[in-house]
Amino acid sequence: MEADPIISREMAYYKENITQISTVDEFLDDDRLYNYAMKAFGLEELTYAKGLMRKVLESDLNDENSFANLLEDTRYKTMAAAFDFGNTVATAEIQTDDQFEDTVDLYSTAIDRRNTTLVAELDYYEAVIATVTNVDDIFYNETLRDQLFQAFEIDPEIFDYNTIRSVLTSDPDDPTSYVNVNFMDNVDTWQTQVNDLYALRDDEEDESEYNKLTSQIEQYQKFVDKAYIYQEMAGSFNFSADGTLAEGVSAQTSEQVTTFKEKVILAEPELTRSAMLINQDYYREQLAAATSVEDLVYNIRLSEIILSSFGLPTTTSFSDMIWAMTEDISDPNHEIYDRLSGFVDLANAFNFNADGSIPDGEEIQTAEQTDDMMILYSTRYDDEEEEDRLEETSRFSGYIDYTSDLDDLLSDLSAAQTVRNYLLRANDIGENELSTFQLKKILTSDTNDPDSYVNQLGDERYRNLAKSLNFDSKGEITSPSYAQEENEITRIAKAYYTQKTMFDSASETAELAEEEVLYYRERLGEIETVDEIVADPRLVEFIAISEGLTYEDLADGVLGLLLRSDLDDETSYANSFDDVRYQKIAGSFSFDALGRIQQSSATGVQSERGLVETENLYVTQSIEEEAGETEVGARLALYFARMAPTITSVYELLADEALGQFTRTTLSLAEETASADIDKQAQLIESRLEIQDLQDADKVNEMISRFLVLYDLENGVSFDPTVAAFSSAASFSADTLAAYAQIRTQL
Questions:
Q1: Which of 247, 498, 572, 610 is deepest in the core (most CB within 10 A)?
Q2: For the chain, what is the domain count?
Q3: Which letter does DSSP use for residue 547 in this model?
Q4: pLDDT digit string (tens) for 475-487?
């Protein structure tokens, strides 16, 4: 039939031009395309009803109440599923909803991941520092060096090797050591300068001079702070002046290692869980030594722990804290009850006198009070940072959709920096870890190409960053690449659910089917290669059942070969099958010959699967039409043979005039029953036909054989012995019935 010049011409026109269609209006306005599709899906008699078909084509098949889903005739749903005019169409967008949610999830859990990484790094540090024999071993080991720099606030970009090495080999107890001579001996002088500059600034009225003095104060204060940092760093290690270790001496004692690790953890920009645990221990230690309320409040670290425990703002003043902690709140009319609720809890957590001293025979806190407070701290220590993360997420959400292209994202605009920093942190990438050039190369890489720039880097963080955004090789925003597009996932998921539940109404069956649909959807969003699908038996079986096949039909490498097939190549593996279901499977996915995801070769509103199905149906309809020109019965039989596997209820038979006629003839029902009440017709047919039989090829063949005989008898055609030959055939193909119709005309 495809050799027919008219059919071939229409098929070629459709295949060439459907890829140019992007809207339903364009489709409906092109009569050749529209009529071709309507004929393919058996709706040729409704070509005039463009208003109706618009509603069908724009239906969201995910919505059970959409127009196409509410129609009993399955032809409408089948046609809607072959196109993507509805809500599932893939559009160019910098991030899909799923990508956005994944990014937010990563950002929200970045602190937890950092804590896990940090603990592992510090375990490594503790193991390796025990093997260090020379100070330079620290500089040669990037992890040790980074931990050192973080602990003592050293900028790795501008540090001076000789200075840091000299500090590390200094003895802070030796007045002639490098750290004392060059830093600590100057502290008093620098501090005097700070004090004098403060005095001058207090009397300064000129704004420019005031700012100049402020800058000088900050500079000298840095000298003071650095001196104390260097002194602490020198005391954290035990190297000799030449950088070696004396016999029997380790680079750090166990106490020094513990203190060092705590400094690294507390130097993190945000409090991790490990930092919280360290703070709890610190609080208990300091509480035991405290003798007054001031000992707690004026210790900034302790005051922050206390405020966090009771959900009070970090801006709460020392005086307000002392007031609350020393008040007797037994009077229900006390003014504290009109303040923040945290003040009441704060007052109840301590036992101070009104003057801030400890009552005789009592403690600042009982063990129970301390334990209760530490529990509160463990749940609230990051509340303020969580609020900051929510605010950052809100800003990211507001800015990301306004990004016009990659150059926009990489610009110096404040909004671009917000988006960029959010993405980097979500993927555990340092703010200054990558250059703009590297970011551009990463974000324009094809993550599905093993030879692409990002994959050659071998860092999963960079790859995840590239996958979180949708830029093409030129930095333009494009649509995301998935193993299967959303409309195809929807179609195959609905087909699977229908196959599993069509004859089993048990709630357990439906629940299991829904679980598999959810699993399929989630896995398809993660799949990157054909091999990943083939290696998952649940996915293989899901695909097979959705197309009316069995697991065995796609096993032993069959599915893998199908998904790597090029449907435009007539010699490809998928095209070697006479059964169009195999081509539909191949066309439903977006893999190349190597089994990697590629952008779908079909553009516009139809996937390759949609094109294959439409083409096959068009040819089938043409065969049926040709058969029907000389033998109506043959056309009805052909149509029934094609539709039978899709029928799940008697009402679908009755909703289709051709199927209804076939059924009445086959079951020897009077034609007048067609005008009876629809429910009574259904009951009558159900009493004579098991709808499940339509899924059995042998029983369908028996029905077709019976129909052909009875149709001839009803229409005054003498019995043809050729029919008997068909009754034992394994199956009735379109070509077989067309041939039969042709034989009939020659008798």
A1: 610
A2: 5
A3: T
A4: 999 877 788 887 8
Q: With pLDDT > 90 as the criterion, what percentage of the chain qualifies?
A: 54
352, 380, 408 - which closes a domain: 380
Same domain, residue pair 493 and 585: yes
In angstroms, the CA 595 to CA 313 distance is 55
If one counts every other C-beta atom within 10 angstroms of the C-beta of residue 445, the result is: 23
* 583 and 516 share one domain: yes
What is the rounded distance in angstroms from the CA atom of residue 315 to the CA atom of residue 307?
9
Phi, psi of 148, deg, nearest 5: -60, -45
Residue 401 inside a domain? The answer is yes
Give just the sign of the alpha carbon dihedral 43, 45, 46, 48: positive
Residue 79 placed within a domain: no
Closest CA to 102 of 537, 396, 484, 438: 396
| Last residue within a domain, chosen from 250, 283, 302 | 250
Statement to judge: residues 348 and 322 lie in one domain: yes
Do 651 and 582 share a structural domain?
no
Task: Specify whether the CB–CB gap between 471 and 446 falls below 8 A.
Answer: no
Q: Is the pLDDT of residue 725 over 50?
A: no
Please, what sign has the CA dihedral across residues 174, 176, 178, 180? positive
| Structure confidence at residue 264 as a pLDDT band (50, 70, 90) | very high
State how far the alpha carbon of 701 is from the alpha carbons of 110, 281, 402, 640, 642, in Å.
62, 81, 59, 10, 11
Query: What is the per-residue burial (b if ≥16 Cβ within 10 Å, else e) of 168-201?
Result: bbbbbeeeebbbbeebbeebeebeebbeebeeeb
DSSP state of 676: S
In a domain, 39, yes or no: no
Same domain? 281 vs 312: yes
Q: Is the pLDDT of residue 228 over 50?
A: yes
107-121 tens-digit pLDDT: 999 999 999 999 999
On whether residue 185 sits in a domain, the answer given is yes
pLDDT at 668: 84
Helix (H) or strand (E) holding 384: helix 383-400
How much is the pTM? 0.64
Lowest mean pLDDT among 13-17, 239-243, 592-596, 705-709: 705-709
Query: Would the pLDDT of 735 be above 70?
Result: no
Q: Are residues 355 and 391 in the same domain?
A: no
Q: Which helix (H) or strand (E) holds 708?
A: helix 697-714
SS3 of residue 614 by DSSP: helix
Q: Quick check: helix, strand or coil at residue 590? A: coil
What is the share, in percent, of the chain residues with pLDDT greater than 70?
Answer: 93
> 38 and 5 in contact (C-beta within 8 Å)?
no
Indicate if the pLDDT at residue 330 is higher than 70: yes
> Does the pLDDT at position 562 exceed 70?
yes
